[in-house]
């Protein structure tokens, strides 16, 4: 298999060893799956958890890829084994981060440490050892759009110049320091600048990924089932939880913010292209999203209600949504990105990548997974207090 695979320039792809930090998370689990099923590469999977990749690791020795994936349970905050693993690998991919908005304003120190301080040694070891790095940043580094500062009735708000987000041209616009929501975006921006500087001054080979709301199976957790009851995951899991419990979906500040959602499986194709085409990917920052899948959060809720009813066979909710203030939902210091449309010029030009899956289709496969995985457990959790 290894000799048959070629890169975008027709050159054979050599098997490589990848140190993947944060491999046990949502994106990491899909990337590990793809690398095991379709490539000859070896993964040194680093994380504090491995629940989401257990199906790739166990039973030990039973999969065709078993000798190509090793799990290393370690916390990169304080573990001297990290440098050795980076040295053993040809490429390091750093996914480790605190990346749920409910944490940014309530745990700003942990957020800044996780997204900046803890990533520093990874960058340093890659630079010092001449290793290539693919670092996961975020579309949140763009912050708010320029258009959001124009008067509400300004025709310029319709002009893409004022809202499309371009890696090499758009500014990064954050709220004031009291709006601690931006602690995450600001930490990610500074680590991007540091990586860029390592490339410019020391010749480090790097690519930076800015994901735009990647969603799909295994994203985050369902509160009270496979995560804390009081935990607040990202919107897909929040709305899935409401649907599973037959509760109205909560629209923060009326659900007026806009997002573009991309299917995780489409997005992983883009990451694989970066991994296997270093000459085209090195030195670039890549938006990875689906500009065709834009909705307001209210529209997302409405679509998820329809799709869930279809895949579960249950009737739609009588009271489908309820408005909630951001202060009540997230606490003091929350703020929001108004709109996120990725410009696709760079990823198209360098890697020829385009997303394929419509929002309806990706919600259908994701909510089928949510229903199959959680409906019974939620039913039992709801029934339990009554039984006691
Ligand atoms: N999912 C998205 O749409 C999205 C969007 C923008 C940016 N990102 C970025 O992509 C990356 C991965 O996101 P995800 O959605 O898979 O999140 P995730 O929370 O599912 O995965 C992150 C993983 O990193 C691990 N981790 C965190 N700190 C660690 C530490 N100190 N040591 C070892 N492991 C640690 C966690 O245990 C977790 O498994 C993050 O950097 C995130 O900021 C994701
Ligand atoms: O996924 C991304 O690209 C990035 O954006 C996310 O940020 P955000 O899109 O604001 O987070 P979500 O939790 O997915 O929320 C999306 C929108 O839904 C709203 N929301 C969320 C949950 C809910 O129950 N109801 C609700 O209306 C939020 O206020 C926000 O406007 C996270 O910061 C990161 O995972 C990531 O860096």
TrEMBL record:
The keyword Hydrolase does not apply. It is an enzyme of class 4 (lyase). One of its GO terms (cellular component) is cytoplasm. Coiled coil: none annotated. Its EC number is 4.1.1.35. It is found in: Cytoplasm. One of its GO terms (molecular function) is UDP-glucuronate decarboxylase activity. One of its GO terms (biological process) is UDP-D-apiose biosynthetic process. It catalyses: UDP-alpha-D-glucuronate + H(+) = UDP-alpha-D-xylose + CO2; UDP-alpha-D-glucuronate + H(+) = UDP-alpha-D-apiose + CO2. It holds the Pfam family Epimerase. Its cofactor is NAD(+). Keywords: Cell wall biogenesis/degradation, Cytoplasm, Lyase, NAD. Residues 18-289 form the NAD-dependent epimerase/dehydratase domain. It comes from the Eukaryota. Belongs to the NAD(P)-dependent epimerase/dehydratase family. This is UDP-glucuronate decarboxylase. It comes from Carya illinoinensis (Pecan). The lineage of its organism: Eukaryota, Viridiplantae, Streptophyta, Embryophyta, Tracheophyta.
């Amino acid at each position: 298999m290894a000799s048959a695979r070629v890169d975008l320039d027709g050159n054979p792809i050599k098997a490589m060893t990848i140190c993947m930090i944060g491999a046990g998370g949502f994106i990491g689990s899909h990337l590990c799956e793809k690398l095991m099923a379709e490539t000859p590469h070896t993964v040194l999977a680093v994380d504090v958890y491995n629940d989401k990749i257990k199906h790739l690791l166990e039973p030990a020795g039973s999969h065709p890829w078993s000798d190509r994936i090793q799990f290393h349970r370690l916390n990169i905050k304080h573990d001297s084994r990290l440098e050795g693993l980076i040295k053993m690998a040809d490429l390091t991919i750093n996914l480790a981060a605190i990346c749920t908005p409910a944490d940014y304003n309530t745990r700003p120190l942990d957020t800044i440490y996780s997204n900046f301080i803890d990533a520093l040694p990874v960058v340093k070891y890659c630079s010092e050892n001449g290793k290539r790095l693919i670092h996961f940043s975020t579309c949140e580094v763009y912050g708010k759009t320029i258009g959001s500062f124009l008067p509400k009735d300004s025709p310029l708000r319709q002009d893409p110049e004022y809202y499309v987000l371009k890696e090499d041209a758009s500014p990064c616009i954050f709220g004031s320091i009291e709006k601690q929501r931006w602690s995450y975006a600001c930490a990610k921006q500074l680590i991007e600048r540091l990586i860029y500087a390592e490339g410019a001054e020391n010749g480090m080979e790097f690519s930076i990924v800015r994901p735009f709301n990647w969603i799909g199976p295994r994203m985050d957790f369902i509160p009270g089932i496979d995560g804390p009851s009081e935990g607040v995951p990202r919107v897909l899991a929040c709305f899935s939880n409401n649907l599973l419990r037959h509760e109205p979906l909560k629209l923060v500040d009326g659900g007026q913010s806009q997002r573009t959602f991309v299917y995780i499986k489409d997005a992983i194709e883009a990451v694989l292209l970066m991994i296997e085409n270093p000459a085209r990917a090195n030195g670039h920052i890549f938006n990875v999203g689906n500009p065709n899948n834009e909705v307001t959060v209210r529209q997302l809720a409405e679509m998820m209600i329809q799709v869930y009813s279809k895949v579960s066979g249950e009737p739609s909710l009588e009271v489908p949504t309820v408005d909630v203030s951001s202060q009540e939902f997230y606490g003091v210091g929350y703020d929001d990105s108004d709109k996120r449309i990725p410009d696709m010029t760079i990823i198209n030009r360098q890697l020829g990548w385009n997303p394929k899956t419509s929002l309806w289709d990706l919600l259908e496969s994701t909510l089928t997974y949510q229903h199959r995985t959680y409906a019974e457990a939620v039913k039992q959790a709801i029934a339990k207090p009554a039984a006691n």
